[in-house]
Amino acid sequence: MTARSFEPSPPSDLTLPEPGSLTARAILSMALRKLFEDLKGLRLGPNASAAAHADYRTLREVLVGFLPGNPGAIASLLRQPTISAPLRCLLHQLPHTDDYVAELVGQSLYALARDALLPDGVRQQAPPPSLLSPRHDAVVERVEGPVSFDDLPDAESGRFTPIDEGVWLATADNNPERMRDAHPDKQGNAIDLGGRSVGEWIDSLREALSLVGEQLPDLRREMALALTMVVPVGFEPEKHLSASYRQAIGTVYLTLHPNPVVMAEALVHEHSHAKVNALMEVDPILNNHWEHSFPSPYRPDPRPMMGVLLGAHAFVAVERFLEKLGDPAFQGHLDDLRRKNREAVATLVRDGRPTPVGAGLIAELERLVA
Known about the structure:
By secondary structure, this protein is α+β, with helices and mostly antiparallel strands. It is built from eleven helices and eleven strands. Helix 6 (198-215) packs across helix 8.
């Protein structure tokens, strides 16, 4: 596969898809193919421990021996945030290499084992604390090495509850970055049902997804491709907090709110981030330096230009959702968003240094707020 396979065209409807749009699908697919190629080329550096090197060799031996006849199964592995998140942490050269290797190897081997695709006798010297399989609603806690995947303790169920086809409410999560949060009002994303039942969460999320489907059906269809896990992080009756991570595309962290419109807004917002995060895997979008900060109408603190872009891209989609909804109770919020979105897009047009792909995205935003 050549490098040109990962050169996207400037998008014209990544913020608000046109009817029948394939833009998000193409970008998500391109990011997945690149992740596959990056995994094949990944080599651990000298900062990894001997156990991490040994476990990573085990994974590579399994995948190399397994790959020729099962390419679809490898793609299935990489679609799972439990596996792709630690892999992207390694690829992005974040710290804690041994922890990422433990998660990548352990979750990959466990997924293959649950699908009855793992060869007999495979062991991991330094496994992660838990092994997770959302598709099988299976969690093995308190794993200690060395561990044989032929002789694991019984798995616990009830930790991954279906919300919709291919989307789970997850009360188990292994995203290595989940306790790091850039939001000034939050300190990480510890799992917390907020005193509410799983059933309340599921009902709220299903109603929210239905609202998105009613008002923005094409964007809702995109969610079926991009959304995998919703992790509960508390109950907030007065405000709403949500988060997602570039490394964990497919996972969103939400507080529960009694109003389904607020929940729908959060899903639109975080889905928008997922699309830009996938695009960043194959194109830098902006050439602005990350250490240079600019005023953001959405935050009290100055943000890198990419932060301004992420905010504008998400909130322009939310603006359209609220416009379509037409609920007078949200008119003040909608008016405030319109003002902030125009201010953010003006900053992007004036001070952004986009790549050709990024220029297409900014042009779409400029057209949508005009």
